[in-house]
Fold each of these.
Amino acid sequence: MTERAFATPTTLEDALAALEGDPHAAVVAGGTDLVVADRSGKRALPERIVAIHRVPGLDSMEEDGDGLRLGALVTHARIDGSPEIQARYRALADAAALVGSPATRHAGTIGGNVVNASPAIETGSPLLVFEAEIELQRVGGRRTVRYSDFVRGPGLTDCRPDELLTAVRLPGLPSGRSGSAYLRLEYRQAMEIAIVGAAALLVLDSTGRCTDARLALTAVAPTCIRAPEAEARLRGRIIDEAALADAAEASASAAKPIDDVRASADYRRAMTVVIARRALETAWRRALESTA
Ligand SMILES: Cc1cc2nc3c(=O)[nH]c(=O)nc-3n(C[C@H](O)[C@H](O)[C@H](O)COP(=O)(O)OP(=O)(O)OC[C@H]3O[C@@H](n4cnc5c(N)ncnc54)[C@H](O)[C@@H]3O)c2cc1C
């Protein structure tokens, strides 16, 4: 049986030191992916585990210029319950509210969700439409990368073995009336993995013309992806239901789904149009209800 070492650093410096020069060490935050993967026989726990729950500051949520900075340990429950996120980054709150069960949402963190990098990750499409940035630190260095560049493939990110994801930064929103939404197709209403998901962000001027449109898709490619053709069909246009239907139709061109036990590729492609349209309609309704 493998001997495992478990460290519980109480400072950021000690956490980074525990990761330095040890390719067998891995971080555990809420453990809802790492521990569950081991117990289900999917992936054994690493030899050395660095638990970060005692590192101060990693659970903070704070204004950052005109944006918001979420520490790596902010849980899905806190994201769902945050009035600030509900008001400005609603698609992210929608996504957090869908993760697992109440227990999963209270233990599972934004940092763990992002580094786990499942193609069906709930926060992925919202982070793409908000053009989020990822902050990483290691001994002697720190860097910030765009979320869109951070995720490389299923379970693969740009996080090096000696790096800790310290925060997820949500930049300020473009000016205008904006609304966003995330929703997913699911066969049951809880404890489900997205068959297809979509996040939309729409920004309108005072005449109802769309000044910015962003749409991202979940579980239809190796990573969450933007749908540029759909977005282009909305920018500069007065939004109505026909415009949204047109954009949703165009979103299918971005989808590269696969057949798996939960759905065929053809079904996923067809449902991409439906789910993209619902996300766009909800974002539009919320933009109309918002004040600039
Ligand atoms: C019953 C159940 C239902 C679920 N439902 C959903 C769902 O609906 N949608 C969804 O998206 N996910 C779901 N998940 C997956 C999981 O809950 C989330 O991905 C969660 O956000 C993971 O966070 P965590 O803190 O538990 O990560 P952990 O398990 O602690 O870590 C996950 C991975 O990230 C690494 N890591 C964690 N934090 C950091 C950090 N700060 N820096 C560097 N590396 C780090 C770990 O080394 C590990 O590789 C579910 C899980 C369970 C058990």
Amino acid sequence: MKQKFQQFMTGRYGVDQLSRLLLGISVVFCVLSLFSRWNLFYLLALALLGYTYYRMFSRNVSKRYAENQKFLNARYRLAVKRDQQKRQFAQRKEYRFYRCPGCRQKVRVPRGKGRISISCPKCRTEFIKKS
Ligand SMILES: [Zn+2]
């Protein structure tokens, strides 16, 4: 039985981080469907489950790998952004944060210096803000 399954899975993609997340979401939808009268959650759970199995048994390994890579990149960017926001929140009493009108670069300036001219460290655009 185990050998048969292994034989079936050779050349197929298998489980990755994206399918684990999709499985988790479909379990959440399943639980939600128990407490709600809508069949929508149940349908969504089934659809996600179907898609996850489709990915696991897919023979197009490179495409599935690329999808997972995309997902991992997005997750990483989200984590970096969350870290940045945390840091900015922790420094909110000593610093003000502005975006450069020229290049959208985030600029940090000390608070309580009155109106100051800020020059962007990236593109050298100058703009005047209250600090
Ligand atoms: Zn700039």
